[in-house]
Write a structure and sequence with these properties.
By secondary structure, the chain is an alpha+beta fold. It contains ten helices and 13 strands. The chain binds alpha-D-galactopyranose (GLA).
Length: about 375
C-alpha cells in the first residue's frame, strides 16, 4: 500500500513535469513530514526530542538545463519560480515565497561545494502545509537530496540537516531548532528517533508493535500569533538559562529554580523544558519496554505542561486532547510541534482506530464547526533519491 501510494505520487508528478517542461524528469528525491511523539520546545534548549517520520512526503522531480537557470513549479501553486543557481550575486529570498526553501538549500549547497547547475524542477507534496507536520523541512530536505543526486555526491547526514535548518533561518525567517530537519534526513521505517539536540547523538527506538498506532488529528486551525510567539519562547528560554548561569536550559534542574531570581513567566517556561526533557527520555525507555500505558501518561503530562507552563496550546488543541481522553483505547494524547494550532498526536490501540477517529471527528465538528482531518501512520523512512 505504502509503495503503491508512493509510485502514484511519482507518476502524477512526472506527468505534470512533462506537461510543464516538455520532457520527462531524470532525477527524483523524497523527504517525509514528521510528527513529534514527545519533547516539544526542547530542541533549541539543547534537550531531547522523540519524533518519527510520517507516511506523507514531499517529492521533487527534475531534469538538468544547459544554463544556470532554475525554474521551479509546484502542483499546489500557480506561479513558476525562476532564478540563477549562482553564488555571484548570492542567492537571496524573493517571490514566490514557497520557492525560498529550495533556494536557501541551494545557497547552502553552493557553499558546501555542490554545484548542481541549472535545472527545471517540480514539487509535489502530501504533507499538509501549516499543520505542524514540518512540510517546510520536508521540502528543504527533499531539495538537498535532489541536489546530492544531481551532483552525485553525499553530504554527511548531520551537515545536511544543519544546511536545511540554515535555509529555514535565512530564507524563511523562522528561527527553528534542529528536530524537523534531523528526522526528515535520518528517519528509519518502524522507528521513532531519540535525538540529543546537544551532542546530536541519535538512538532509533523500535515502534513496530502492530497493536499500537499513531493517530494524527489536524485541528485545521493556525493562529497568527504562532511565529512571533515561537521566537519569544526561544528568547525567554535563552535569557532564563543565562540568569541561571547555564549554557542552556538542558543543564537546569528543578532545584535550581528555587530562589533563582527568575520572573514567574520565565520560571514556568524553564519548568516545562526541565520536565519535558525528563519525560522524553523516560518515553524512549517506555517505548523500548513496550509500556504503552506509561508512554501515554507521559504524553498526557507533556500536553498539560505545554498548555499551562509553556502556554503554546490553544482551545482547539485542548478540545482535541480532551475528546481523545474520553475514548476507549487511547493511551495518550497531546499537541505536537510548535503549537497555537496544527495537530494532536495520539497513541492508540490499533483495533480502535476507526471508532476513535469517528468520535473525535464528529464531536470536534459539532463543538467548533470545523472539519478535522485524521489519519493513522506507521513510522516511515527518511529522505532518499528515487
Ligand atoms: C517547530 C520547530 C522545531 C521545534 C518545534 C517545537 O516545529 O521547527 O525546531 O522547536 O517547533 O518542539
Amino acid at each position: 500500500m505504502g509503495r503503491w501510494k508512493h509510485q502514484d505520487q511519482f507518476h502524477r508528478a512526472a506527468a505534470t513535469f512533462k506537461q510543464r517542461f516538455e520532457r520527462p524528469p531524470r532525477f527524483a528525491a523524497v523527504a517525509p513530514g514528521r510528527v513529534n511523539l514527545i519533547g516539544d520546545h526542547t530542541d533549541y534548549n539543547d534537550g531531547f526530542v522523540l519524533p518519527l517520520a510520517i507516511e506523507r512526503q514531499t517529492l521533487v522531480v527534475a531534469d538538468r538545463r544547459r544554463d544556470r537557470t532554475v525554474r521551479l513549479a509546484s502542483t499546489a501553486k500557480a506561479e513558476l519560480a525562476r532564478f540563477e543557481n549562482s553564488s555571484s550575486p548570492p542567492l537571496a529570498p524573493s517571490h514566490p515565497q514557497w520557492a525560498n526553501y529550495v533556494k536557501g538549500v541551494m545557497a547552502g549547497c553552493l557553499t558546501a561545494g555542490l554545484h548542481a547547475g541549472g535545472f527545471d524542477g517540480l514539487v509535489d507534496s502530501t504533507v499538509p502545509v501549516g499543520a505542524g507536520l514540518s512540510s517546510s523541512a520536508a521540502l528543504e530536505v527533499a531539495a538537498a537530496t535532489l541536489i546530492e543526486q544531481m551532483c552525485n555526491c553525499k553530504l554527511d547526514p548531520p551537515a545536511k540537516a544543519l544546511l536545511c535548518q540554515k535555509a529555514e533561518h535565512d530564507f524563511a525567517g523562522v528561527p527553528c531548532g534542529i528536530m524537523d530537519q534531523f528526522i526528515a534526513v535520518m528517519a528509519r521505517a518502524g522507528h521513532a528517533m531519540l535525538l540529543d539536540c546537544r551532542s546530536r547523538q541519535v538512538k532509533m527506538v523500535d515502534l513496530t508493535d502492530p497493536s499500537v498506532s499513531i493517530l494524527i488529528v489536524n485541528s485545521q486551525v493556525h493562529h497568527d500569533l504562532a511565529e512571533g510567539q515561537y521566537a519569544d519562547r526561544r528568547l525567554t528560554c535563552h535569557r532564563a538559562a543565562k540568569t541561571l548561569g547555564l549554557k542552556a536550559l538542558r543543564d537546569a534542574d528543578m532545584g535550581m529554580l528555587t530562589d533563582s531570581g527568575l520572573d514567574p513567566t520565565s520560571l514556568r517556561r524553564a519548568r516545562h523544558v526541565i520536565s519535558e526533557n525528563q519525560r522524553t527520555r523516560e518515553a524512549a525507555a517506555a517505548m523500548e519496554a513496550g509500556d504503552w500505558r506509561h508512554l501515554g501518561t507521559l504524553m498526557d503530562r507533556s500536553h498539560d505542561s505545554l498548555r499551562d507552563d509553556f502556554e503554546v496550546s490553544c482551545d482547539e488543541l485542548d478540545l482535541l486532547v480532551d475528546l481523545a481522553h474520553r475514548q476507549d483505547g487511547v493511551y495518550g494524547a497531546r499537541m505536537t510541534g510548535g503549537g497555537f494550532g496544527g495537530c494532536t498526536v495520539n497513541l492508540v490501540h490499533s483495533d480502535r482506530i476507526d471508532p476513535i477517529s469517528n468520535q473525535i471527528h464528529s464531536q470536534y465538528r459539532k463543538q467548533t464547526g470545523i472539519e478535522p482531518t485524521i489519519f493513522a501512520t506507521r513510522p516511515a523512512e527518511g529522505a532518499r533519491g528515487l
